[in-house]
Amino acid sequence: MANRLSRRKIALFVTDKLLGGKTSADEVLRELAAYLVTTRRMRELDLLVRDIEAALAAKDVVLADVTSARPLDAAVKAEITKMLGAKSVQLRESVDEALLGGIRIDTPGKRFDGTIRHKLNALRAKQL
Amino acid sequence: MNILTQLATTEPASGGVFGALGIDFGMLIFQAIAFIILVVLLGKYVYPVFIKVVDERQAKIEAGTTAAAKAEKKAAEATTEIEKLLKKARVEASEIVTTAKEEAAAALEAAEQKSKTQAERIVAEAHAEIDKSIVAAKKALHNETLELVALATEQVVGKTVTAKVDAAVISAAIKDAK
Fold first, then answer.
1. Same domain for A123 and A112?
2. Under 8 Å between Cβ of A57 and A107
3. Closest to B143 (Cβ–Cβ): which among A115, A116, A127?
4. Structural domain tally of chain B?
5. Same domain, A69 and A81
6. Do B146 and A126 touch (CB under 8 A)?
7. For A61, which of A43, B43, B115, B156 is 20 to 30 Å away at the CA?
8. How many angstroms away from the CA of A10 is the closest CA of chain B?
């Protein structure tokens, strides 16, 4: 059996493939899935995805998870994209009414929480 | 005895001064000798016994007097000693009373001080307990207020936030993030 590749190396390889443009994203992901199955490393999938996102962010390609209480309009999305300030920004949107209002943005290694729920929780956290 | 009677009844000799006075010279001598003999006998056999008895009595009296004087002296000494002892006892008693008073005063003062300290400690503890309770009450009030405010805000915001308000909130949040 070949040397076991580190997760970081796999993430960098996948990132290069995705950004290289020679191979389609679907094909890259299929290869990755096949590799993980073959090497019995499926349990590392979540961590590997996070590493890939971090590697993409390092190359100025940001994949951001945006959560809000209501669906976002185009203007807000543009504002978020501008705020993130990356060459390429992809937003993964989700709606959570429990947030009451505002927005939460998760990028690799960072989280910005501007939701009303977060502010209320912060208020509760000030309890003595 | 018969001789004496005969001498007494003898007629006085005639002549001389003794005769003129009616004194029988021979009888006088005889009586003198008898007297001397009597005196000698008394001096030899009776007086010594009397003198001895008298001496013994005198000695006894003198001894008694001496003993009485000694007893008196001893009594005087005893009286002096008793007075001395009484004086000493009075002084000691006075000292004991003074010491007892001082000790009682000191004990009283110590007890007062102890009571005062204890009272102050109890008051301080009570104050501390009250302060603690006040702090706990303030804390509880603060926490309950926060919780109520959070709950109220949640309820109000949940009903009042419209899409427009939400957009404004999001814009403000994005500005904060920048």
1. yes
2. yes
3. A127
4. 1
5. yes
6. yes
7. A43
8. 32
Q: Which two tokens stand for residue A77?
A: 């999305």
* pLDDT more than 70, % of chain B: 92
**Chain A residues lying within 8 Å of B146, measured CB to CB:** 123-124, 126-127
Can you list the alpha helix ranges (DSSP code H) found in B14-46? Answer: 16-21, 25-41
Question: How confident is the model over B83-97, as pLDDT tens digits?
Answer: 999 999 999 999 999
Record: contact B167-A76, CB cut-off 8 A? yes
B138: nearest CA in chain A? A128
B44, amino acid identity: K
Q: Both A38 and A77 in a single domain?
A: no
Indicate the number of domains in chain A: 2
Whose tokens are 């000790």? That residue is B103
Interchain contact, A80 vs B150, CB within 8 Å: no
**Cα B16 from Cα B25, distance rounded (Å):** 10
Among A59, A81, A96, identify where a domain stops. A59
ipTM: 0.73
Residue A122 structural domain: 61-128
Which of A59, A88, A104 is at the close of a domain?
A59
**Cα–Cα distance list, A104 to A100, A126, B68, B177 (Å):** 11, 21, 131, 11
In this structure, the answer to whether residues A54 and A71 fall within a common structural domain is no
Residues of B in contact with A123 (CB under 8 A): 146, 149-150, 153
Is B142 an 8 Å CB contact of chain A?
Answer: yes
Same domain, A72 and A41: no
> Residue A54 is inside which H or E element, if any?
helix A45-58
A67, A121: one domain: yes
Which structure tokens are listed for A9?
């190396």
* pTM flag (> 0.80): no
